[in-house]
Amino acid sequence: MPLGEFDLIERYFRRPQDALRGVVALGSGDDCALLLPEPAQHWAISTDTLVEGRHFLSTVDPDALGHKALAVNLSDLAAMGAQPRTCTLNLTLPAAHAPWLAAFARGFFALADRHDLVLCGGDTTGGPLSITVTVLGTVPPGAALKRSGARVGDRLWVSHPRNGGLGDARAALEQFRGTVELPPAAWQHARLRMERPEPRVALGLALRGIASAAIDLSDGLVGDLGHLLKASGCGATLDWTALPMADCLAPLPLHERRRWALAGGDDYELAFAAPADADGAVRAAAERLGLGAQPIGWCEAAPGLRIVDAAGQPLDTAEIPTGYDHFA
Ligand code: ADP
Ligand code: MG
Which regions of the chain are under pLDDT 70? Predict the structure, then answer.
């Protein structure tokens, strides 16, 4: 029996209890979902598309893909300091392959359930493999961590796992591409960071009232931090030696690791600014969540991003990679 569109949705993406949780009054299955707005809260909405060959390799484990399609969206809510509430899933599939769908749904819902996030609807069509998730979260007015709030004198921070850093996912991508050969432990670590990024939702919530601005790192630190600085009307100097980098990648050439940390992409960490008197609060928040928070530089009045090396000398601008741009 071939799996039809409606059977597929019913079997893999509709869960009866979903309409009964949180803000979802009526879930997937009707012409629209019905949401119960929470009084005196802003909705935070974000959407991201993953396209085969562009955002993921065709060989990726579908369980990991289900995880990542949601994780990259939750990362945007995290960067806004928003509490995840519900989401939609638009799937374009070349074929309805039951084992693939089961694994994809497993990865997707495992992450959704950890964030108490209800899937309230979506769309399912045939075509080249592409996945679009839209997430909705809530945040009290005035509490959102916008990109535009950084001020001259604020410290700049980046989150990282205790055993990892920026550029981990890029290291895995380069191994897949065959341009590097990672030691086994580094490969295992990097691959997990690439395929199963952990959205920093709890950190985003904890930084409400502490951080002055935040952004999540999807295209690389230089490009993404550049967006934050531009929105805030300031510039910054970063200390290249302060960038968190995984110990297990240390056997690789320094210039590679430097480029990956600055512009590798797919980090899904938070970069944020906070007034200098909030250092203790930032460290305490990260500590409580079992994460690292690394001070990497300062906001300055002079526009643009400068990066200094161990001797305090500015890196040659030609050495500073820029962020990923789909059309550049
Ligand atoms: P319509 O033709 O009215 O747009 P659809 O046939 O596209 O309706 O969808 C039927 C129902 O199934 C809707 O409630 C929609 O939200 C839900 N749905 C479709 N695809 C998915 C999916 N991938 N995940 C969750 N719900 C889905
Ligand atoms: Mg539809």
Answer: 1, 317, 319, 322-328
CA distance 128 to 122: 17
Q: Which residues of 121-148 are buried (b: 16+ CB within 10 A; e: fewer)?
A: bbebeeeebbbbbbbbbbbeeeebbbbe
Contacts of 219 (CB under 8 A, 6+ apart): 263, 265, 323, 324, 325
pLDDT score for 168: 97
pLDDT at 324: 63
Nearest ligand to the CA atom of 31: 1
Nearest to 71 by CA among 135, 160, 159, 118: 135
* Closest to 242 measured CA to CA, from 286, 186, 308: 308
Residues 270 and 214: their CA atoms lie apart, in Å, by 7
The pTM score is: 0.95
Query: What's the gap in Å between 122 CA and the centre of ligand 1?
Result: 5
Torsion of CA 197, 200, 202, 204, to 10 degrees: -160
Residue identifier of the C-alpha nearest atom 9 of ligand 1: 123
**Smallest CA separation from ligand 1 atom 24, residue:** 122
